[in-house]
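Field log, afternoon session.

UNIT: design team B
ACTIVITY: writing a sequence onto a fixed backbone
BACKBONE:
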């Protein structure tokens, strides 16, 4: 299998960490999504990462779909079996992913729009979404099971990305999340290699 990714993407980091946790052999291919490389477009017509190509050529994209595939393929290594525990994990995963979606839109507004064309009310709206999500996430983390799940990798991907894209925000506003992130490499040592980092 191979996955198209960027080293800075929280969603790609989530997938790569999940694959490592499941002991799946996966080739990581770094791509620049803005260049719309043909291999990435063939794997995902939306041109987004992560995109996974299976051994038989079948493709999957969206980090949740890919991680769910890994879970099914490995006999449930990433998600709890009981409905209640599964629901809690998927809620935490969706919250982390949603925060990432909102924050990435604010990054793109600054990166791709000239300063005089940026829409501050829209950026403020995205930040309010992210801030509400981060507040919820602090509470929800207590529901994580002891063993690692897709939710752990989603949260680690998000917070690891925030540590350089929104430097100091967690420590200043959500210290419990900063503490969780600081402790995560002890639970998952491969985070140093597979977690998000500046491109």
């Amino acid at each position: 299998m191979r996955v198209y990714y960027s080293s800075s993407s929280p969603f790609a980091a989530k997938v790569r960490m999940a694959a490592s946790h499941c002991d799946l052999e996966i080739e990581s291919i770094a791509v620049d999504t803005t260049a719309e490389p043909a291999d990435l477009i063939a794997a995902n017509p939306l041109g987004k990462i992560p995109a996974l190509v299976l051994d038989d050529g079948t493709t999957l994209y969206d980090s949740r779909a890919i991680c769910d595939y890994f879970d099914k393929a490995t006999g449930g290594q990433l998600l709890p079996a009981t409905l209640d525990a599964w629901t809690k994990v998927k809620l935490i995963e969706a919250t982390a992913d949603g925060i990432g979606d909102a924050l990435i839109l604010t990054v793109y507004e600054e990166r791709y729009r000239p300063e005089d064309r940026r829409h501050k009310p829209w950026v403020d709206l995205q930040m309010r979404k992210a801030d509400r999500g981060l507040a919820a996430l602090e509470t929800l983390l207590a529901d994580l099971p002891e063993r690692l799940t897709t939710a752990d990798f989603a949260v680690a991907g998000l917070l690891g990305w925030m540590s350089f894209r929104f430097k100091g925000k967690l420590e200043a506003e959500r210290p419990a999340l900063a503490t969780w992130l600081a402790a995560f490499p002890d639970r998952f040592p491969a985070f140093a290699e597979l977690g998000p980092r500046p491109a």
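LOG NOTE: The chain has nine helices and four strands.
NEXT ACTIVITY: expression trials, pending approval
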